[in-house]
Task: inverse folding
């Protein structure tokens, strides 16, 4: 079975700083999904990556999938308190759209 | 926002009692999923459905059953709740197997 490991497990940054969250897979990734979760709420879809070397951006968040398709990174530029939450990566590519998730990265942004 | 409603949002019950959680969607999506979220484990798939009356087990299905009699409703049942089933439960839906899943707001279940 596929396993995803996220690093770091938690991250505390000052507002305005850049940061990166990594997601490493035990197997080739055929679809990688990034989600954000605020405490007590559901997951919000951020981005999906499918091709090796693919990069997508939305506002100040950029996600990349490496050429070998075994690692993805999520980069936030000039972090804001609104970026705080739990970030989860999910691996797809299996039948019926099932996802396997990493354990999540807790991001705290101090004003 | 995807039209997904989970009910109840919070529930406290006792060990040994049956519990049913409901997920209702208004998107007419084919796929529906139940996950549980626990500290240090991320989200783990309990059961999923790929059509009316078509369901299958996920990674952590022991102690859970599901039913889907209509496209819009997916029920998760704990036949005899145990304290280890205290968790936050999320329902998700997807239209196709290579599309993102969209999640409900979750049900926080405490079993005493």
Result:
């Amino acid at each position: 079975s596929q396993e995803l490991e996220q690093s770091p497990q938690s991250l505390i940054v000052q507002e305005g700083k850049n940061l990166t969250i990594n997601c490493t897979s035990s197997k080739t990734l055929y679809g990688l999904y990034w989600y954000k979760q605020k405490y007590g709420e559901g997951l919000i879809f951020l981005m999906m990556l499918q091709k090796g070397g693919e990069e997508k951006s939305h506002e100040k968040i950029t996600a990349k999938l490496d050429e070998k398709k075994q690692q993805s990174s999520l980069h936030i530029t000039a972090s804001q308190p609104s970026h705080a939450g739990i970030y989860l990566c999910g691996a797809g590519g299996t039948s019926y759209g099932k996802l396997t998730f990493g354990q999540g990265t807790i991001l705290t942004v101090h004003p | 926002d995807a039209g997904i409603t989970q009910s109840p949002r919070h529930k406290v019950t006792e060990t040994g009692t049956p519990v049913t959680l409901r997920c209702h969607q208004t998107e007419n999506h084919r796929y529906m999923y139940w996950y549980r979220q626990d500290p240090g484990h991320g989200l783990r798939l309990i059961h999923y459905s790929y059509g009316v009356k078509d369901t299958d087990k996920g990674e952590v299905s022991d102690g859970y059953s599901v039913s889907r009699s209509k496209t819009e409703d997916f029920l998760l049942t704990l036949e005899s709740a145990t304290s280890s089933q205290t968790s936050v439960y999320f329902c998700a839906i997807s239209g196709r197997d290579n599309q993102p899943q969209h999640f409900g707001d979750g049900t926080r279940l405490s079993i005493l």
Notes: DSSP finds no helices and eleven strands in chain A. Chain A touches chain B at residues 1, 4, 31, 33, 35, 40-45, 48, 50, 88, 90, 92, 95-104 (CB under 8 Å).
